[in-house]
Amino acid sequence: MMLITCPFCGKRNESEFIHGGPVGAVRPDPNAVSDEEWVEYLTVTPNPLGPVQEKWWHARGCGEWFTIWRDTRTHDIVEAPDGTK
Amino acid sequence: MAQSNRRAAGGRIDRNRPVRFTFNGKSFEGFEGDTLASALLANGVRVTARSFKYHRPRGIMGHGPEEPATLVELDGEDASGNCPVTTVPLRDGLSARSVNCWPSPDFDLGGINQLFARFIPAGFYYKTFKWPNWHLFEPSIRKAAGLAAAPSAPPAQGHFEARNAHADVLIAGAGPAGLQAALDAGRAGKRVFLADEGTEAGGSLLSRNLTVGGRAAMDWVADTVAELSKMENVIHLQNATVWAYREHNLMIVNERAPDQNSILERSWRVRADEVVIATGATERALVFGDNDRPGVMLASSVQAYVNRWGVTPGKHAVLFTNNNSVYEVAVDMIAAGIAVEAILDSRNEVPQAALDLVSGVTVHTGTVIGGVRGRKSVRGVRAVPKTGGSGVWIDCELLACSGGWSPTVHLWSQSRSTLRFDDDLAAFCPDQPKQACRAVGAAAGNLTLDQIIEGGEDLSYGIEPMWRVDVSGQRGKAFLDVQNDVAVSDVHLALREGYDNVEHVKRYTTGGMGIDQGKTGNINIIGTVAMQKGLPLQEVGTTTFRSPYTPVSFGAIGGLRENWGLFPYRHTPVTQWNKDNGAVMYEAGARWRRPGYFPKAGEGLQEAVNRECQAVRTGVGVYDGSPLGTFELKGRDVPRFLDFIYSNIMSSLKPGDGRYGLMLSEDGLILDDGVAFRLDENRWLISTSTGHADAVNQHMEKLLQTEFPDWQVMITTVTSQWNNATICGPKAREVLQAVGSDIDLAPEAFPFMSFREGTVAGFPARVVRVSFTGELSYEVNVAPRHMAALWDKVMEVGAPFGILPVGSESSHVLRVEKGFLSLGHEVDGTVDAYDLGMGWAMSNKKPDYLGKRSVELRRSGGGTRRELVGILADDPNRQIPEGAPLTPGGRKEATDGLVTACVWSVVHNRWVGLALLEDGHARQGETAHVRLKDDVIPVTVTKPVFHDPEGKLLRS
User: Fold this and answer.
1) Lowest model confidence (mean pLDDT) among B120-134, B204-218, B710-724
2) What CATH superfamily classification does B476-540 receive?
3) Which of B56, B538, B672, B718 has the greatest count of CB atoms below 10 A from its CB?
4) CB distance from B857 to chain A under 8 Å?
5) Which of B705, B855, B856 to mutate to test the interface with A (most CBs of A within 10 A)?
6) Which residues in chain B have Cβ-Cβ distances shorter than 8 Å to A31?
7) Does domain B1-116+143-155 have CATH number 3.10.20.440?
8) Does the pLDDT of residue B1 top 50, yes or no?
């Protein structure tokens, strides 16, 4: 079980959180994209071997949604690869 | 009766407290402090088990969790299958049986397998039982090969529990290294969690006669434990195994028999800043023909029985080694009166310090075992020069072996930390940590006491590895994994057949897959592979170490979750009234307890439901709608937020008005349906279905926080802040007037789909005109503290109108008659609004809302869709099972629909149903066919509404 740092509550057990999936593409204007682009947006999510930015929800805590970078190989919570937050 | 192999004195047992137990039906006596294994050896029991596959006779080989040979099944209140005999503490009345044998390990009918041994090598089952289907053979093979069965019932007394803890340092193992680490950390003021799998602290010192600073090592242990017990910052548990190393230093500890009597086992989840792995080392078996005969034991185990339990496992012994550790064992054996006939050492040279310990004992250097005599017990061994030759037979009944020592790196490896093969120690040792952990003591490769604690005295190690005896003329199977009956020949076969990765070898041969997880034998498998392939061991590598390190009972893992105690029901203030009035209570989603129906004396379900429905259709009924999910939304951006999450337009509503709407998910499927009311400019109330309230709340929160963080929308869950009595039926208005309200109830002043605030029966109330029954309906919301009084008032005032309480069964009938959908029935994750005939709810004006594009995309492909229709069987008295399939012409073909609901309509006095049917909208008036297992029911397809299709009644 991972130890995840909530921006408000600090380090908490993974069991307090719900995984919200990897951070995908920004929602496009549905009237400005092709069918293929829309399907791509809906169905293709990042699935790298290595660091991935993920949404997590502190459901059994303060209710905050936030993102972390997690290494899919090790479950280590890591710095953003490009130094961004 | 007598404990023939018990020493006259000594051992860490209480000779004043004899303990009686039975093994395979025979009665024995041992002492408090014994394990089942030490007590059996004390009583001279030799054959304690039969092997897994070949049913060879087996004895006890080890003294701890490494035991590969004997598993027992415990009976009675200890009921548990497959316990290593060496880890069962002896207790008065204990009853145990061997596994893998019938009728007894001494006379086992399954032993016939030994005759066929050469026909059942590794992979035999995979190759043989392929046709027509493995599952055909599986049950009988499992029965023949299987271990003990799971207990048939939970423990009669006591319970399991789980506990969380935090520590600066968790130390796994209370041997010399672990105790020293605990002492250092404890003195430094750190929060220490020290857990050890043994019943007593001391680890290997418990069974060895070593000294620290000139005093007995166990005195040092006692002093250390005493000092730790005085430290408030130290938790010290014995009989508690650290069995899993999880992410981010979460350790799971299984504490058996904690002090509290009512607790059987406790599962600790400990999050530690640092983990110290002081798990010691495990002695390895040596591999030679018939190395599994009863009487063949690990040398360290013989030493443990002699010293710790005061037991001599045999009278005439031979020792066989490739390192120095057995010389000190021999000293202790001689002191216990065991005749050491010879020490066979595979090394050509033995250090003088070792030889000096055993002056007078014959030591054969450069010698290995070329054969073993005896079947149910060792009777002699053949000492052969490792260069070959015929050798000499030496009579003995005990053979103590040491193949060297493997650091117990299980936890280290579970943490993903790496291993390196150390050529000097001939062992895999901890290399680079991947989490905040370090290994100390023998687990780190410091195999002698002088390396671990200051003043400790020990003989040097001096191993020359020997993964298997490799001399010609050997007979009998040479076992690498005694528990799973995996011999050298099986590994050679696996390699010949191409399974040459060590993970493949493991799976093909099952070597290391037993309950002992190959603690004594895996290294020899790796060594055998290395020898065969001519590779260094580092390149062959180990198989992956996974938790649990030793078996953990399911009870401990389940903890308090054995019952429903942590998952309570939700009640409304009317629950007690419902029960007092004879309601049959159901769970109605989201753990809400609701009345199903209110039968009168002698009445069945259908009669009660008909009566309740009749009341709503012709008079008045009332139900408790409190569990319906309700949320108040406030803020400037609520209108555009609702426009985004509902498929229809909500922003155009005027204060006091409401609208029914559908919520879609981004992939165009229906998430929920409900109504939204505008209370004032920036305040809204929305309702969701009972079972989906949480999901809808999460859906909204996620959108607001992740997609629209700058929108001003605040969500408050008010499901339990407002309770409601929903009065429904043609006489609802009269009843509400009689209850008393300051709200103008005239239809034009308070029309359908509007909201008014005021008082009802003197209580502050929010009254909403919505209808889930199709009748005139007032949902009267009051504070929970007023709900019971309101309910009583409604029932009292409504009595002259014939008011009846309505349960969820009747609600179902009423909504089906009206064709109102129910999530989970008509909405199943494939249908969209158009399929349900609700295209009007899909706004054409809004350029975008959640799910719009996906619904368009899905429908643009054309093709037939399953659409909601009503169905009427030709026979009005024919009930159609909900969920039954419809097939073209009723033929045995792929279905073209399914029945989603079927109820007895009080309006039509017949069964009416709803169904999802391919092209259903175009097939109205036609006949479709419900196909049952033995029957076909022709049905007429109708519109999915059987009552008041124009909706005049609910607007009245």
Assistant:
1) B120-134
2) BFD-like [2Fe-2S]-binding domain (1.10.10.1100)
3) B56
4) yes
5) B705
6) 847-848, 853
7) yes
8) no
Contact B271 A3 (CB under 8 A): yes
pLDDT recorded at residue B143: 65
Residue pair B668/B858 in contact (Cβ under 8 Å)? The answer is yes
Q: Burial of B749 by CB count in 10 Å (0-12 exposed, 13-18 middle, 19+ buried)?
A: exposed
Helix (H) or strand (E) holding B577: helix B575-580
Q: Which two tokens stand for residue B33?
A: 């402090």
> What homologous superfamily is domain B575-627+721-814 in, according to CATH?
Probable tRNA modification gtpase trme; domain 1 (3.30.1360.120)
Taking the CA of residue B846 and the nearest CA in chain A, the distance in Å comes to 11
Q: What is the CATH number of domain B863-955?
A: 2.40.30.110
Give the rounded distance of the alpha carbon of A62 from its chain centre. 18
Q: What is the pLDDT at residue B584?
A: 96
Compute the half-sphere exposure of residue A2: CA atoms within 13 Å on the CB side of its CA. 18
User: Measured between CA atoms, how close is A38 to chain B, in angstroms?
Assistant: 8
The per-residue pLDDT for range B89-99, each reduced to its tens digit, is 999 999 999 88
- Rounded to an integer, what distance in angstroms lies between the CA atom of residue B446 and that of residue B934? 74
3-state secondary structure at position B589: coil
Residue of A nearest to B244 (CA): A1
Q: If you ran DSSP here, which 8-state letter would residue B42 be given? A: H
* Alpha-carbon separation of residue B514 from B83, B297, B324, B411 (angstroms): 12, 18, 29, 18
Domain B629-717 CATH (choose: 3.40.630.30, 3.60.15.10, 3.30.70.1400, 3.30.300.30): 3.30.70.1400
Count the alpha carbons within 13 Å of B557 in the hemisphere toward its beta carbon.
8
Note the CATH architecture for domain B286-402: 3-Layer(bba) Sandwich (3.50)
pLDDT in tens, B785-817: 999 999 999 999 999 999 999 999 999 999 999
Residues from A in contact with B at Cβ < 8 Å: 1-3, 13-14, 18, 20, 27, 29-31, 35, 38-39, 42, 55, 57, 59, 63-65, 74-75
Q: For chain A, say whether B892 makes contact (Cβ under 8 Å).
A: no
Which of B246, B247, B667 has the most A C-beta neighbours within 10 Å, making it the best mutation to test the interface with A? B247
